[in-house]
Design a protein that fits this description.
Elements: H1 17-51, H2 63-71, H3 74-111, H4 113-128, H5 131-142, H6 146-170, H7 174-182, H8 187-224, H9 232-241, H10 245-274
Helix pairs in contact: 2-10, 3-4, 3-6, 3-8, 3-9, 3-10, 4-6, 5-6, 6-8, 8-9, 8-10, 9-10
Length: 284
């Protein structure tokens, strides 16, 4: 009879399917983003050279002209970066003020029904009234300098923070509320230990939305309130009046890149703060 040798068989390393899917998804998202950017640049070139005549090409200079004449020229780039720093400072102050006010108001609205009925209509009015219609009044009330610019940022960023905070507080699980009631928790303990942690994903979502809104508000404030140090919006208005299209587009590109960077940073901070205990903190 033949004998069968029982030799140890080395385990075959198998790839983690979940990790493989995540890697493929990230690669796919990156490829789509690069393809979209390439398509946008190609469309830009097509409009510059195929739609506009050489006499009207100054309305939309091609990308390489914007790079060579503005973004890669230190004489043109330096004042834009300085102005962008001023706008960033205004946006930062507006964001902090809007975050404090918005979270406080949203939390108050969730505590009693009558506060919600009193405050929420004003928040809606603040959102639906065009900000351009209010900016002249802000200039009359606060002057035409930094204070008015910050006020514009706060007004344009306040609504998403209030609504998301209110939604987060009202979405706390009722069973957890009953558990805190059985434990005879005070209102402050319930707020700090239950409602605020449970509402943090929604609050961070509102802050992430507001981070982009304050950039818009700061640029609008630059255009309307030109006293003091000029911001990037002030330079945009000057470039428009002087028909300096390459500098105008370069300033728009810088402002957009800054807004995207701020949004990405807020998204990363939100994901780190929430962690993996909530679905919004997981990486897909």
């Amino acid at each position: 009879m033949s004998t069968v040798l029982n030799l140890p068989i080395a385990p075959v390393a198998q790839a983690n399917p979940v990790a493989s899917r995540r890697l493929a998804a990230r690669f796919g998202r990156g490829s789509v983003a690069v393809a979209a950017l390439a398509a946008g640049v190609g469309l830009w070139y097509a409009v510059s050279y195929l739609v506009l005549s050489p006499q009207r090409r100054f309305l939309l200079p091609p990308p390489h002209a914007v790079l060579a004449q503005s973004l890669l020229d230190s004489v043109h780039l330096r004042p834009m970066l300085v102005a962008l720093g001023v706008t960033a400072e205004v946006a930062g102050m507006g964001f902090v003020a809007a975050a404090v006010i918005g979270v406080a108001v949203g939390a108050l609205m969730s505590q009693t029904w009558w506060l919600e009925r009193v405050i929420f209509p004003y928040a809606v009015v603040l959102q639906v009234v065009p900000i351009l219609a209010i900016t002249p009044l802000l200039g009359l009330w606060f002057g035409y300098s930094t204070t008015s610019r910050v006020a514009v940022c706060v007004m344009i960023a306040l609504f998403p923070i209030i609504t998301n905070t209110h939604f987060g507080f009202r979405s706390v699980d009722a069973g957890l509320h009953e558990l805190f009631t059985l434990g005879r928790a005070s209102r402050l303990q319930r707020l700090v230990r239950l409602e605020l942690p449970a509402a943090s994903p929604a609050i961070l979502t509102g802050l992430r939305i507001a981070s982009g809104q304050v950039i818009i508000g700061a640029i609008i404030g630059d255009m309307f309130f030109a006293q003091g140090e000029p911001g990037i919006g002030t330079l945009m208005d000057d470039y428009r009046a002087q028909l300096r299209s390459t500098d105008l587009i370069a300033a728009i590109v810088l402002a957009a890149a800054f807004g995207v960077a701020v949004f990405v940073v807020c998204s990363v901070v939100s994901r780190l703060a929430v962690g993996r205990w909530h679905g919004s903190g997981s990486v897909r």
